[in-house]
Amino acid sequence: MPSQFDSRIERSTNAKFPAEKGRYHLYVMYSCPYACRVLAARNLKGLEDMVGLSVTHPVDQRTRPDNENDQHMGWTFVDPEKTPSVTGMNDMHYPTTGCIPDTVNHVNFIRDFSTDIVRMLDSAFEELAPSKFQLYPDELGGEIDASNDGIVAEVNRGFFTHALASTTEVAQINLAKFFTTIAKLDEMLARQRYLVGNTLTEADVSMFHTLIRFDHIQKKTNEQQLTQFQNIVGYLRDIYQTPGIASTVNWDHMEFAKVNRLPDAPASEGPFVEYSSPHDRAALA
């Protein structure tokens, strides 16, 4: 779906939206894997003091709860009185509702596609960022794109078709298909530390935030478990222990969102992976 927010932050000081400290603000929801990918990019680049952050409630709420005819759902904040109002394009006022993540400057909404925002944070702030970490290095761009369109998309699609299945029977069928993809990923990770090259990239951040959500919702009674795939377990520990990543994970918000969507479902039994335990992934570098 095309976005009405398709502007870009650029390095040039003469750009319409130049990279500047304190000019941009990020709105994220911890229960959303796409928003957490962007939050991870902000942290890995060391932009915490340059790009502001507001965290929404883990579940969309009715934006006009007193109007029974308006069923629109959108962002809410734990303390909305402290959240700055936002003026969008053409001086139009926008309540804090919509698709997340969003990057906003003091005048306009900029972008709401997670991959675009990740790459803007990675490139536009390169000269200002304390960290020289690159999520999308030019020399690996083609391989990262192939990974995103390949194994990352397969795992993401498998997770959502299982998690959002309409019946238990369909969920089990989709789960079996998902683990076929997981086995392929585990075999890949037996040979290499990361999905692309010898460094963590945006492909790994995307994969991580999908896999941990599956770990959260999987059941002890499942015939197959994520913990049976030791290369994936080590991979998840490796990424989780990378500075800036652990703070993008909020298990409580994930559970709150799941319970809201499936109020009759039992409480989640995961996560099962011990994310803070040692790993030996560096040996593959």
Automatic annotation (TrEMBL):
Compositionally skewed regions (Basic and acidic residues) per UniProt: 59-71
InterPro entries noted in UniProt: Glutathione-S-Trfase_C-like, Glutathione-S-Trfase_C_sf, GST_Omega/GSH, Thioredoxin-like_sf
Renumbered residue ranges of the record's region Disordered: 58-80
Gene Ontology annotations for the cellular component aspect, listed alphabetically: cytoplasm
PROSITE patterns, alphabetized: GST_CTER
Gene Ontology molecular function, alphabetical: glutathione transferase activity
Stored Gene3D superfamilies: 1.20.1050.10, Glutaredoxin
Domain GST C-terminal: 137-267
PANTHER family assigned: GLUTATHIONE S-TRANSFERASE OMEGA-LIKE 1-RELATED (PTHR32419:SF6), GLUTATHIONYL-HYDROQUINONE REDUCTASE (PTHR32419)
Official protein name in the record: GST C-terminal domain-containing protein
Taxonomic placement: Eukaryota, Sar, Stramenopiles, Oomycota, Peronosporomycetes
